[in-house]
Design brief:
The complex is a heterodimer.
Chain A lengths: L1 E2 L6 H11 L5 E5 L7 E2 L3 H7 L6 E7 L3 H13 L12
Antiparallel strand pairs in A: 1-4, 2-3, 2-4
Chain B lengths: L4 E4 L1 E4 L2 E10 L2 E2 L12 H20 L3 H15 L1 H12 L4 H17 L4 H21 L13 E4 L4 H6 L7 E4 L7 H9 L3 E3 L13 E5 L4 E4 L3 H25 L12 E6 L16 E4 L14 H15 L4 E4 L27 H6 L1 H14 L5 E5 L5 H20 L9 E5 L2 H5 L8 E4 L1 H9 L17 H17 L2 E4 L2 H4 L4 H6 L4 E4 L4 H8 L8
Parallel strand pairs in B: 3-5, 5-6, 6-7, 10-11, 10-17, 11-12, 12-13, 13-14, 14-15, 15-16
Antiparallel strand pairs in B: 1-9, 2-7, 3-4, 3-8, 8-9
Helix pairs in contact in B: 1-2, 1-5, 3-4, 4-5, 8-18, 9-11, 11-12
The chains are: A alpha+beta, B alpha/beta.
């Protein structure tokens, strides 16, 4: 359950989906703990969600490396996708 | 049905064409109305998506960081199975691939167009770009040459290299918000007979890119959604122009002799050996100008000696003994060549261009000179230097040329030094022409007018000042012609001015007897010569 400083713009979305795809687990995120759930490996679906700035992201995963996957994605969001807070224009 | 509307600009190349509009977007082409083959199915769509991904990947590799990140996003979108899934389902249900893809993407685009957030709303353009890229590929278009045949290209401006990549054999036209009738693209359009209108004022993005359109190049007019009445009117005008052309074509087969018996040599200008296909050399008196820039724009960088030699030889063999004047590389100005011309010049027209650039890069110039010396064995080759300003440049080029011929001799390769002439396009050269020991002079009227009237040829705002009839321009042309006659050196004129019969009386009065014009202007100029008198005294 995390708050991030930029919306899920193109560049953060690319990073998020790329990272998610490195795991075998099926990974989803939602804007609330009760869904709806979005496939975190699909850039088309991530972008279509149009996640605004300062939203809270909830992750859930099922599969062998589910725990590591959720932790890695939380880390990415915590690091603001390795971008400055002002940086989300791509 | 959409209402007809008209856009008025300036004429840049005459001719009439109708077809779908096709938007040119920042160097990257987006399809307005590309339609795939109706039988195309899943396999074709997947292939088109793969091809579009490959195009974007190549483009990203050649783009700066910010651009590459946007492309990376686009590539990720195209790669995502979720983007194509609805289209594949529609194909499964019997829809043709192009419609299935268009509808699937339009639905995505609508999702962004309706977004509250500006940022997400702007992503609709990315999706539109992806939609059109794949549609172009589905329609069988290539990465660069992806314009549908016969389309009216709509854009803010068009680069000459882009023009040259496009297949114009199916007709079509060019409608530009900016641009200028004296740009190189306009010159190329006139040479290929492609109708072109510039200075429409309306930004290209504000025009309905999906409209059917008609272009009347001579009138500087674009009609969107033309009615039957419009089309009938244009067809009438087109027929009248064709009748005039037929009359000219009769003159095409005859030598160009004035009413008072002066034989005028009328040659052609070419930029690409492909222009000579299907063109009968006996209709002209040779080639007065071969531009070699195109050779240097191809994929794979600067052309090596053999590639140049093959191209030059092909032109000489076509001419079958008629004189062929090849101009050495005239890069710079509005004709930049990546990796060769100087970047960041604040005034490239007054910068390192033409012979100045060639003398600055002798290692590249030498390759062209060797290729020319070898080609000289195959016909009546003459070589001319662009942008010569002072005699020392001519002599420096001559010395380099002689050195290359000597090296060929030492290597046992056949070659010879062809007659070496110069373009007269810098007023300093025209005013002091007697100081140049050139075998012949070819007046480049486009640049001579630009430099004499201090009116940039890429600026529409000063186009009226760049008047070929300016007395200073005509006086310079007369001076050069007089010097040539006195010194026994041939003088010709190879700019756009030669191709417009309206200027013919002034050129004949200045004493010129040799002109070189775009192939499409040949018939009209020869016909005009036969109506004129050479001496007005």
């Amino acid at each position: 359950m995390l708050t991030h400083a930029v919306g899920l713009h193109a560049r953060p979305s690319v990073k998020l989906t790329k990272l998610a795809k490195t795991f075998g687990a099926s990974i989803e995120f939602g804007l609330s703990g009760s869904g709806p759930w979005i496939d975190a490996k699909s850039i088309v679906k991530v972008m279509a969600t149009k996640v605004p700035q300062n939203s809270t992201l909830h992750f859930r995963a099922t599969g062998q490396d589910a725990g590591a996957a959720v932790q890695a994605l939380i880390d990415l969001v915590e690091r603001d996708f390795d971008e400055g807070a002002m940086n989300g224009e791509a | 049905m959409a209402k007809p509307s008209e856009l008025l600009g300036r004429p840049a190349a005459p001719g009439i064409a109708t077809g779908p509009l096709f938007r040119l977007a920042g160097g990257v082409i987006a399809a307005g109305d590309a339609s795939g083959a109706p039988q195309a199915g899943t396999g074709e769509l997947l292939q088109a998506i793969e091809a579009a991904i490959a195009d974007l990947t190549a483009l990203a590799a050649a783009t700066d960081d910010a651009g590459a990140e946007i492309l990376e996003f686009q590539i990720a979108m195209l790669e995502d199975p979720a983007l194509r899934a609805p289209a594949l389902a529609a194909i499964g249900a019997g829809a043709p691939a192009s419609r299935a893809w268009r509808e699937a993407l339009d639905q995505q685009i609508a999702g962004y167009t309706n977004a509250e957030d500006d940022y997400f709303r702007a992503r609709a353009a990315d999706l539109t770009d992806l939609r059109d890229r794949v549609l172009v590929r589905l329609a069988g278009g290539g990465a660069a040459a992806a314009t549908p045949r016969g389309a009216i290209l709509l854009g803010d401006d068009l680069m000459p290299s882009r023009f040259l990549e496009i297949d114009w054999s199916g007709g079509g036209g060019i409608a530009l918000a900016g641009g200028s009738p004296t740009s190189h693209v306009a010159m190329l359009a006139r040479a290929r007979g492609v109708p072109m209108v510039v200075g429409l004022g309306t930004p290209a993005a504000a025009v309905d890119g999906h409209a059917q359109a008609a272009i009347d190049g001579a009138a500087g007019r674009i009609i969107l959604h033309p009615t039957e009445t419009h089309l009938a009117d244009l067809a009438r005008r087109s027929a009248a122009a064709a009748a005039a052309r037929r009359a000219d074509d009769l003159a095409l087969r005859e030598p160009a002799v004035t009413v008072d018996g002066t034989r005028i040599s009328v040659m052609v200008n070419i930029a690409d050996p492909a222009e000579l296909e299907g063109f009968d050399p006996s209709l002209c008196d040779g080639i007065g100008l071969v531009r070699t820039e195109l050779l240097f724009h191809g994929a794979g960088g600067l052309p090596d000696e053999d590639r140049q030699y093959t191209a030059y030889r092909r032109i000489l063999e076509w001419a079958a003994g008629r004189p062929v004047t090849i101009r050495t590389l005239d890069a710079g100005g509005d004709k930049p060549i990546p990796g060769l011309t100087a970047p960041g010049e604040s005034n490239p027209f007054l910068g390192l261009r033409g012979i100045r650039l060639s003398l600055d890069r002798p290692e590249i110039f030498a390759v062209q000179l060797r290729a020319l010396a070898r080609a000289a064995m195959h016909g009546a080759l003459k070589v001319m230097l662009p942008m010569v300003t002072i005699p020392r440049e001519l002599e420096a080029a001559r010395a380099l040329f002689a050195a290359e011929v000597a090296r060929l001799e030492a290597d046992g390769v056949p070659g010879r030094l062809p007659p070496l002439g110069m373009m007269v396009e810098v007023p300093a050269a025209a005013l002091a022409i007697e100081g140049f020991d050139a075998a012949f002079f070819s007046i480049g009227s486009n640049d001579l007018i630009q430099y004499t009237t201090a009116s940039a040829r890429d600026s529409d705002a000063v186009a009226a000042l760049a008047d070929p009839r300016n007395p200073a321009v005509l006086r310079l042309i007369g001076e050069v012609a007089r010097h040539g006659a006195a010194a026994g050196r041939e003088v010709s004129l190879c700019g756009d001015m030669a191709g417009d019969p309206a200027y013919l009386p002034a050129l004949l009065a200045a004493g010129l007897t040799a002109l070189s014009v775009a192939p499409v202007a040949l018939a009209g100029v020869k016909a005009a010569v036969r109506r004129e008198r050479a001496s007005h005294g």
